[in-house]
Write a structure and sequence with these properties.
binds flavin-adenine dinucleotide, 15 helices, 4-stranded parallel beta sheet, 7-stranded mixed beta sheet, Polyamine Oxidase, Chain A, domain 2, single chain, 3 domains
């Protein structure tokens, strides 16, 4: 036996599961397919500063990940959008607006349709799991409604539907017609509310990791008694009455239990991992499409202009821009996010970096024209991940951990979290839950 428990995947959820198991006295081997740990967490050094190419923020009520960070001495700081006095930008319908406060300056004629759309979506999210109350329900989607039905039914203006598309690209890494409506509502509900997922104050973007999110992953890994084995993809899992064989290209490990902590669509590639009947549905799930472009200037000139660096961009190749080095005076780093079709369109272009810089010039002005470095990442090209930030299930394909767990085969991974799926917090919760199942099996 190579380890009492084998954990497959050294993303945050797998590392947390391994740490909890070791703390309970179990011996653990972590197998990771890629040549690094962290999965969708990737912090790189850019001109001597930490820049997050993957996960970036942590929210005030994301208590699982915040508690873990506290325990490990990993510092977080308030997102600088809250910096007093500074303005943000909002780009929509071909115009760039400068504003201050919580609500972007949408035209007066759009207040009602956009306001009703957001209120209707909020009701649909809150009621996604409750008993239908026809008089009160604005709308309850059917199994085959795609999320463009959310736009068609709830957002009655083209302007409102463009805002919805921008929101979807940022949250799901997908366009509204690519996500089953029920799955979308369930995902939003698990975050608590629309507000919680979208906002900075009291929302998912409230704080950032001072040393990058990679510091948290490294701190968890450092507590393990042995390092994860890199470049060791697991190809099959075979459980029998006395244990589990975990098959890799380098050989087979025998364990008493296994935790599978890989993105759900990737789990379909591990032979024998899924219970009978789940494989087809899982093969039809996919990851979202998400890209970040990192644009580095000698100085953060936007701060001199009284700007936070944050932009919500409804009609460009990027949907959001943020200050990627908020804790320091130089260099100036703008990070541009693209999701869904905007990300795939952008990355199909050979001049994609010039395209993003041109968009920054449209948003901020001529200052933005002369970065000294541009780098980018598209997560669909990351082997073993295939996209980000979350798995998009097919119709009827919302999986819960209990649907997949069989005897000695346990499941972690943010996609299977009961709260904050798709987020770091969900990764921590799912890792802890999988470890608990093994430490204290339910009889
Ligand atoms: C650009 C971007 C921005 C994000 N922003 C935020 C944010 O601001 N806040 C937030 O909370 N979250 C954010 N997220 C999401 C967050 O990063 C993820 O929810 C979290 O990191 C998922 O952790 P995980 O352990 O569930 O999975 P993963 O990180 O996907 O880890 C899975 C691991 O399994 C490995 N693996 C796959 N197949 C195999 C195999 N066959 N054998 C062995 N290993 C395998 C993979 O290589 C990977 O290391 C963002 C993600 C991205 C990409």
């Amino acid at each position: 036996m190579s380890g009492d428990v084998v954990v497959i995947g050294a993303g945050l959820s797998g590392l947390v599961a391994a740490r909890e198991l070791e703390r309970a006295g179990r011996s653990v081997t972590v197998l990771e397919a890629a040549d690094r740990i962290g999965g969708k967490v990737l912090t790189r050094d850019v001109d001597g500063h930490h820049v997050d190419y993957g996960a970036h923020w942590v929210g005030g009520d994301q208590t699982a990940v915040l508690d873990l960070a506290d325990e490990l001495g990993i510092a977080t700081a308030p997102e600088p959008r809250r910096r007093r006095g500074a303005d943000e930008l909002f780009a929509a319908a071909g115009r760039v607006h400068r504003y201050h406060g919580q609500v972007p300056p949408i035209p007066a004629r759009e207040w009602l349709p956009v306001g009703l759309g957001i209120a209707g979506l909020d009701v649909a999210v809150r009621r996604s799991r409750s008993t239908p109350v026809p008089v009160l329900d604005a709308w309850r989607p059917g199994e085959h409604d795609m999320s463009n039905a959310i736009g068609d039914r709830l957002f009655r203006s083209a302007y409102g539907r463009d805002i919805l598309t921008c929101f979807y690209r940022l949250i799901f890494g997908a366009d509204p017609d690519e996500v089953p409506a029920r799955a979308a509502l369930e995902y939003l509900r698990a975050a608590g509310s629309l507000r919680a997922i979208a906002e900075v104050r009291d929302g998912a973007q409230e704080r950032y990791f001072v040393g990058g999110a990679g510091a948290l992953v490294a701190a968890v890994a450092q507590q393990l008694s042995s390092e994860p084995r890199l470049r060791t993809p697991v190809t099959a899992v075979r459980a029998d009455g006395s244990g589990v064989d975990v098959v890799t290209e380098d050989g087979t490990l025998r364990a008493s239990a296994v935790v599978i902590a890989v993105p759900l669509p990737r789990a379909a590639d591990i032979d024998g991992a899924l219970p009978a009947g789940a494989g087809d549905r899982m093969r039809n799930s996919r990851m979202g499409e998400y890209a970040k472009t990192i644009v580095v200037y000698d100085e953060p000139w936007w701060r001199e202009d009284g700007l936070t660096g944050t932009v919500l961009d409804v009609d460009g190749p990027v949907q959001m821009v943020v200050d990627g080095n908020p804790g320091a005076d130089d260099p100036g780093v703008l990070v541009a996010f693209s999701g869904g079709r905007a990300a795939s369109d952008l990355f199909s272009r050979s001049d994609r970096r010039e395209t993003v810089v041109a968009e920054l010039v449209r948003l901020f002005g001529a200052h933005a024209a002369s970065p000294h470095l541009v780098d980018d990442i598209t997560w669909s090209e990351q082997p073993w991940l295939g996209g980000a930030p979350t798995a998009i299930p097919p119709y009827g394909g919302i999986f819960e951990a209990a649907d997949l767990t069989t005897g000695r085969v346990h499941w972690a991974g943010t996609d299977l979290a009961d709260r904050w799926p798709g987020y770091l917090d969900g990764a921590v919760r799912s890792g802890r839950r999988a470890a608990r199942e093994i430490i204290r099996p339910v009889r």
